Amino acid sequence: MRLLYSFVWGLSLPFAVFRLWWRGRREPGYRQHIAERLGFFPAYQKQATIWVHAVSAGETRAAEPLIRALLDTYPQHHLLLTHMTATGRETGGKLFADVSSRLTQAFLPYDINWMMRRFLRHYSPRLCILIETEVWPNLIAQCKELQVPVTLVNARLSAKSLNKARRLSALMLPAAHAISAVAAQSNPDAERLRKLGISEPQVTGNMKFDVTPPALMAERGIALRRSFGERQVILCASTRDGEEELILAAFQEQFPLLTEKPLLIITPRHPQRFDQVAGMLEARGISYVRRSSIDHATIAPIAGDVQILLGDTMGEMYMYYAAADVAFVGGSLVPLGGHNLIEACAMGKAVLTGLHTFNFSEITDQAIAVDAALRVDGARSMLREALALLGNDKKRKAMGQHAHAFFLQHQGATARTMAILAPYLS
């Protein structure tokens, strides 16, 4: 099965490279370092290396406390951080600029045997640490052949992903069996990982709870909030394709009826959709301002007739949360599985989420149970609940306090994960 998988990868390689070039029209990072994706890398000094693979921006941010703990605990080791997306690499460059002498970034090659073999021989890592859901059959097979232990940390697996993996069991089971250790985010994740064929996954929690909100982002959030004047703020964070249209339709139904009109912030999850959402706003005749047009050093007042701020920047999510009164976390109005509520809880905000949170079911249910979050059944319901919270200071502030307490209560996953990794680095 793996031979067939490799054959299909080989056939699709020209299309994969073309896709990189095509995506590079909007995200120039995809046209950079293409040779790395094909298994060719700059010179690298042979040294004790710990390899962490964080596919995109979200996984890179989640890995931050672990990477810093590894660098602190193992000062004689160098860290190799690999990605698949341009935003992941850009995020890593910003997060770890202060430790760049001890950290090398690269794109992971496509999952073709000879490319993975070249990659492993070039960097000779002592340990492979995969973040969240990255299980690549040839990567793991080549690590096994070259005796590089593979670990999967902050691991999560939805029921949908489990069913998909089971359909490819001849390919995925050998990969799962070859993983040396797994640190799962939650009990449901651990149970699904067992069903995939991973023996003895340990539940360590979600490392994103250990990420410290940057003080600079909080300061920028306060400055941004001042630019809105007296208006209250509803944030729709990490929205996905199909959600903005629902939100804007509900917005245009409900907001004309309000005497005091709050400002709505929309931050699409993926940067390639910034212009698309701007086009939706223009087509609907909604007055808006793009965040990228505002100088964060000298934030001027935003005109009172501006209805929406389009968050078209990366790496500023904590700023948007700091500026908001109520936060809706996207990916949950449509069946995409949702996104985690941790950043909103870390900033002490009342949180709203939709029905579709299967990727983060346990953490979402727990947040709802302690009155840190509310579940809504659609965009209209979301805006109604948000407006109700804006009108109820006591309830909104109580939810924010519960959210921050929930965030603090769940810290410690990084230390538990480090304990699991320690035997492979002794």
UniProtKB/TrEMBL annotation:
Subcellular location field: Cell membrane
GO molecular function terms noted in the UniProt entry: Kdo transferase activity
Annotated pathway: Bacterial outer membrane biogenesis; LPS core biosynthesis
Keyword hit for Cell membrane: yes
Documented EC number(s): 2.4.99.12
Similarity field: Belongs to the glycosyltransferase group 1 family.
Main function: Involved in lipopolysaccharide (LPS) biosynthesis. Catalyzes the transfer of 3-deoxy-D-manno-octulosonate (Kdo) residue(s) from CMP-Kdo to lipid IV(A), the tetraacyldisaccharide-1,4'-bisphosphate precursor of lipid A.
Protein's name according to its UniProt entry: 3-deoxy-D-manno-octulosonic acid transferase
Lineage, opening ranks: Bacteria, Pseudomonadati, Pseudomonadota, Betaproteobacteria, Burkholderiales
Record gene name: waaA
